[in-house]
Amino acid sequence: MTTLFDAFISYGRADSKAFAQTLQARLTQQGFNVWFDFNDIPLAVDFQNQIDDGIEKASYYSAPRV
Questions:
Q1: Residues 6+ apart with CB under 8 A from 16
Q2: How far is the C-alpha of 48 from the C-alpha of 5, rounded, in Å?
Q3: CB atoms near residue 4 (< 10 Å)
Q4: CB 4 within 8 A of CB 61
Q5: What span, in angstroms and rounded, lies between the C-alpha atoms of 60 and 19?
Q6: Do 7 and 34 contact (CB within 8 A), yes or no?
Q7: For the residues 11-35, what does the mean pLDDT come to?
Q8: What is the pLDDT of residues 6-18, one digit of tens each?
Q9: Which residues contact 40 (CB under 8 A, 6 or more apart)?
Q10: Higher pLDDT residue, 56 or 44?
Q11: CA geometry: angle at 20 spanning 56 and 34, to 5°?
């Protein structure tokens, strides 16, 4: 069974890392299941595929219309 997450957090700049970590901690404290790329993407993998997978597993994901 696929795990669905309530939120997906990805950050792209070093100066936003602290904010992303604080956001993840606060959401987790509130009981949300959070997929956070800082914790959940292993080193030396295709980051874009991992990020796409995290987005698709979010419970509120809506695929773009083509």
A1: none
A2: 18
A3: 13
A4: no
A5: 22
A6: yes
A7: 87
A8: 888 877 777 788 8
A9: 50, 54
A10: 56
A11: 40
The torsion angles phi and psi of 2, rounded to 5 degrees, stand at: -80, 130
Which residues does residue 8 pair with via DSSP β-bridges, in sequence order?
Answer: 35
Beta carbons within 10 angstroms of residue 40's beta carbon: 16
CB atoms within 10 A of CB 36: 21
Using the predicted structure, report yes or no on whether residue 58 has a pLDDT greater than 80: no
Those residues with Cβ within 8 angstroms of residue 59's Cβ, 6 or more apart along the chain or in another chain: 4, 5, 6
How big is the chain, counted in residues? 66
| In the block, residue with structure tokens 């696929």 | 2
Dihedrals phi, psi of 27, to nearest 5 degrees: -65, -40
Give CA–CA dist 32/9, Å, rounded: 12
- Per-residue confidence (pLDDT) for residue 49, from 0 to 100: 78
- CA separation for the pair 36, 23 (Å, rounded): 10
